[in-house]
Amino acid sequence: MAKHDTPDATLPDFKALEAECMSIVQKTGKVLDKRAALLPLLKKASADGREAARQHLIANGSGIACAEMISDVQDKLITLVHRIVVETVYEGTGSEFAVAAVGGYGRSTLAPGSDIDLLFLLSAKSCPNANKAVEFLLYILWDLGFKVGHATRTVEECLRLSRTDMTIRTAILETRFICGEVLLVSELQKRFDSEVVEKTAHEFIAAKLAERDERHRKAGDTRYLVEPNVKEGKGALRDLHTLFWIAKYYYHISDPAELVKLGVLSRQEWRMFQKSDDFLWAVRCHMHFATGKPEERLSFDLQPEIAQNLGYHARPGLSAVERFMKHYFHVAKNVGDLTRIICASLEEKQAKAAPGLTAVIGRFANRPRRIPGTPEFIEDKGRIALSGPDVFTRDPINIMRFFYVADLHALELHPDALKAVTRSLPLINADFRENEEANRLFLSILTSKRDPALMLIRLNEAGVLGKFIPDFGRIVSMMQFNMYHHYTVDEHLIRSVGVLAEIDQGKHDEIHPLAVKLMPSIEERTVLFVAVLLHDVAKGRQEDHSIAGAKVARKLCPRLGLNEKQTELVVWLIEQHLLMSMVAQTRDLNDRKTITDFAEKVQSLDRLRMLLVLTVCDIRAVGPGVWNGWKGQLLRTLYYETELLLSGGFSESPRKERAKYAAEQLAASLSGWSQKDQKTYTKLHYQPYLLTVSLEDQVRHANFIRQADKAGQVLATMVRSHSFHAITEITVLAPDHPRLLSIIAGACAAAGANIADAQIFTTTDGRALDTILINREFDIDEDEMRRGNTISKMIEDVLAGKKRLPEVIATRAKAKKKSKTFTVKPHVTIANSLSNKFTVVEVECLDRIGLLAEVTAAFSDLSLDIHSARITTFGEKVIDTFYVTDLVGQKITNENRQASIVTRLKAVMNEQSDDARGKMPSGVLPPVPVKSPSPPKKARA
Predict the structure, then answer these.
(1) What is the pLDDT of residues 15-44, one digit of tens each?
(2) Residue 513: phi, psi to the nearest 5?
(3) How far apart are CA 17 and CA 23, in angstroms?
(4) What is the CA radius of gyration of the chain?
(5) What is the pLDDT of residue 654?
């Protein structure tokens, strides 16, 4: 963290303040008047004290110093009010009670927005005025705006409650005298040590570790969330506090620095403890100052400001905020290392004295024994340990053997052995990395049939993975500043391997059935595991990470023992690891050229299978909720269509013949219809509809249109929910209109629905049959159907002119908080090579409410006809693809026309939402006959 030159603000003069307060109180009569008269002076002193702490934090960057300054100001305020109370308001109560700080405040640290945790200790025979004095003091603190956690008890009550309540016991453990009768606090501390703490260390430690585990579970059980909780998350301040509580309880120390003298921590580890604590406190204090409240989640909108406050600057490939967050995750990892080291020391000391503690931390009870085939390691209580202190120095390759044997025998890792690994990291040098056996062992760990992700996590946590593969070390703790990725890059890669291992074991076939089905047929299993581990290894570089990652793989794979053919396959998979996802989500899979272009890049069925599995692993490991059944269906569609082409099974029969056959199939499926009605209905559809929509959906649409016609409905909607695909489908039948898709998109935005895809067709009698696919929101079908019907009603009302689109979208936008945290430079691509019949327009920009409606309205203004659309959202960024023609059905080939399209679309994407909404269509469509006597001159495909 950089230090700044801002001078420290001056702390309040509490001696002068005390004299002024005493004078005021003595001149004021009633108790309430005394409080009212004191309040302005005390408020100013509190605000000045906190401002001084803020200026000090900016000046030298020390979070601990800031927290201690705020605690000191708080102490002086409480001491001042206490003296006023016992000397002028409720005289003679000074020896009746004591005020003590507990919790974090008891450690003499206080964040700007933290609660003030106080214990009022009463003497056994305190007078009634003592309680009134406590009340007066509390009211002053409340009037000052502090949130006070407090308890008023005698010493005896504290001891009794602490025996049964672990929260109270922890609070009393951190009791610190502030003011009042010091003997009461001394008595509590002395009796607490002898009557409660003595011989209960195992009980306390077990409770604290269980509490920590539950806290981690609720927080996602990873320290690599990109919006971490700085107080409660894994690797955050609460973990350091837990270590302090455990050390203080067991070793009877008041300062964690004493752990060095006791041999629990080395001097280097103690410095790590101090730096971690100071950094986390600095981040937390900056967060509280920035928000004006006790905000503990380091959210995206806060990260840039905190990074700037701490003096981080951008470097090639990494923004300032990404460098700051990388440091944060390094600190979180260090906290994990410290936890492991201290727990190992506790277990060693308690192994004989407290079997109960050993059961909690160690979980096993059998004696150490030799592991067959390896003299270097032993099994100790179900964990792999070292047979001697020189195992690693004697042969550094034993570091990799240690993890290999642990995986082979499904053993946990002994904390002492892990500590030895961490301290032996300098042994992993160039010779180690080039060692044939080390690489063979690593590859065995990576491709293990057991749980390779778990062992990779352990290799990474110990620092071995980053040392063994330096390119991986560059992305350890690296975050990507966007809403799409939930984890750091290294965590994402290891989770990807975990997903692959599950697929390899045949698990979760209900989530991705095709990947599980294909996995046994993939011959180059090792290649796939290596590609999955390395696919994002070059993130954070100036060069495209897919290209740079392929270069890394080309050098690394031979070292790992892969032959030339395997290496080239890994290189290709990394270069193309985004291809299948982007094609599936942003291209029209019903357009044959999409499939032929994709097949030309893939070239073989083996590559296709491996790319499909890699794509599934990549998407699923991005974060919770990113993968859904709709994405799976898109990938399956792309796979099956490409498989047909690569295997020579793609239909080459003329399009006209295939359309004719599809119409015959549809007519035959309309059971209960007269031949006349069958013939009339099949003539409603153009070739694109007959060739791209499934027969099941065609029959469903036929019944829907027939029902609407019988009811005389010019406008009708139909809702269907797909729980597996996580998609809700809304079909709209309406008079065709150039702005129809724009109006439907606007209505969906007004109803809070995110559009995932759109199928757009026109019937020969001039009606539009559009199917809009929106992302599912509810797990229960009944709830989702109610939501779908609400959205369809909104579409009907807007199309019928009952509601005006600009107003309903404006109302929705006001309800949603605007965020300026992210920026995405608007980009428009126009391509005529991606489709034989259509011009493909791709827009990329920052997402916002009503964007799709605005963009599609712009297409109408430009006299372009949208034939199909792919709507894709990656966190805060959208990539929407439109297949368009001009009004006579031709591609847009004129360069000047293309330039005007780009200019107009960029203008829409750059406009502020409120300004753009004013230009949107009202949504009123003129009624037209349900059936036209002849086809319109222009029809959308």
Answers:
(1) 888 888 888 887 877 777 878 888 899 999
(2) -60, -35
(3) 10
(4) 34
(5) 66
- Tell me which amino acid residue 136 is: F
Strand runs labelled E in 201-293: none
User: What pLDDT score does 718 carry?
Assistant: 94
For residue 534, what are the domain limits? 473-652
Do 271 and 336 belong together in one domain? yes
Give the pLDDT mean for 286-293: 93
Q: Closest by alpha carbon to 86, among 134, 32, 143, 53?
A: 134
What pLDDT shows up at residue 254?
82
Amino acid code (one letter) for 596: T
Q: Tell me the C-alpha distance between 744 and 798, whole Å.
A: 8
Task: Give the neighbor-by-neighbor strand order of the sheet with 755-762.
Answer: 716-722, 727-735, 767-775, 755-762, 864-874, 877-886, 839-846, 827-831
Shared-domain flag, residues 455 and 481 = no
What is the C-alpha to C-alpha distance for residues 441 and 252, in angstroms, rounded to an integer?
A: 44
Tell me which residue has tokens 């455990």. Answer: 246
Beta bridge partners, 370, equal 378
Query: Which pairing describes strands 374-380 and 369-371: parallel, antiparallel, or unpaired?
Result: antiparallel
Q: What are phi and psi of 74, to 5 degrees?
A: -65, -45
Statement to judge: residues 304 and 372 lie in one domain:
no
Q: Are residues 378 and 346 in the same domain?
A: no
For 924-937, what is each residue's pLDDT tens digit?
444 433 343 333 33
pTM of the predicted structure, to 2 decimals:
0.74
572 located within any domain: yes
- Residue length, the chain? 941
Tell me, what CATH number does 291's domain have?
Answer: 1.20.120.330
Question: Could you tell me if 560 and 433 are in contact, meaning their C-beta atoms sit under 8 angstroms apart?
Answer: no
Tokens in use for 778? 């509810």
Q: Give the 3-state secondary structure of residue 832.
A: coil
CA nearest 306: which of 324, 329, 332?
A: 324
Quote the CA–CA distance of 293 and 442 in Å, as a whole number. Answer: 48
pLDDT tens across 545-561, in order?
999 999 999 999 999 99
Most confident of 540-544, 649-653, 805-809, 893-897: 893-897
Q: What is the mean pLDDT of the chain?
A: 85
Please, which residues have CB within 8 angstroms of residue 850's CB and are 6 or more apart in sequence? 746, 749, 750, 809, 812, 813, 913, 916, 917, 920
The count of domains in the chain is 5
